[in-house]
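pls read this stuff:
=====
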Amino acid sequence: MLATQDVWPSSTAFLTNDERRERLIQKRHIIDLQELSFAQEAAEFAATEAWEEDGSVSAIDWFRFNCKMTTGAAANSIAVGEAMHRVPESMQAVTDDEIGYAHLTTIVRTADAVGERFDERRLLGKARESSPGKFFYICHHYRHAADPKSYADEQAEQVQQRRLKLSTWMDGSVLISGVLDPVGGAAFSAAIEPLAGKSGAHDDRDLEQRQADALVELATGGRSKAQIQVTASLETLRSLPGAAAADMEHCSLPISSKTVERLACDCSVTRILLGSDSMVIDVGRAKRTVSGPARKALDVRDRGCTWPGCERPASWCDGHHLKHWASGGTNQPDNLTLLCGRHHWMVHEGNWQLVRGDDGRMLTIPPTVTFGPPSRAPD
């Protein structure tokens, strides 16, 4: 049992600033070493039946209640402890105070995600020169380059988990709660941000109230697409193997090449294309989006979403290239069709295929499933 004086901070009132810095750095390193030790024992504990003997439903559940941890922190500790044999150089780097335990957690989670494609030495070099937050972001690009399909599948699953709950109080007020995927959240943020600014010096509304007012204004002001900035390489846009993910304004994490493909198809996207040397080679609105007379003609011809059974009007739809312009597709009428946001997403991220039959009607082909439950059918 630790004595109070071992854990309670002593007075630092008479320390110099240099001494304060050194003490904090040393204490953080000690905490990281303790985290390592804890992770090793946590994994060993999880492999026993001790947690079950105490009536817990899982080892993570046991840690939540007995070690006063969040679910994520407990899961990370067990994962790090179980993966120590896979990341010996990273373990040593924590011991030598070259990286922190937060870096190590991200390395382990990345190793779990990419499997045999994991390159510890490459990631460790990035960890040594990056903060934990920046390194977490870098690892998402690394995951996309190593396995773009799995990365896109994860983002697709996040879209399937979108939820919005509305409930009404006795006084008629509406409570809103929910969760959006990163891309959907970015689009929502981009839509309300211009409307949520202060209207002048007299505006004493706080941010939450301004955002609520912006949502109402957006809902009552008609449907207009938010403009979103996407930064990607040509390799990403063309879905070439080993290409990094893309960066999206208002989005906390990189997005997959599948999502870039859809956004570049016909959305209000400002593109920034980077060359192989990361130099900007093109900035501007995508020239291949369907607009002007071509869009009006498409609206008149299709009248709405052409996905069989969908009744979304043309004003709710994007112009979809049956053969994407990045792959040589044109803006000719026979290569274009209208799709609502839901079905446009299903073609790109959802891996459905859409082809025009001989009679001009659109035919849908579900994604090929080899293992696991069948894909979710369209709404």
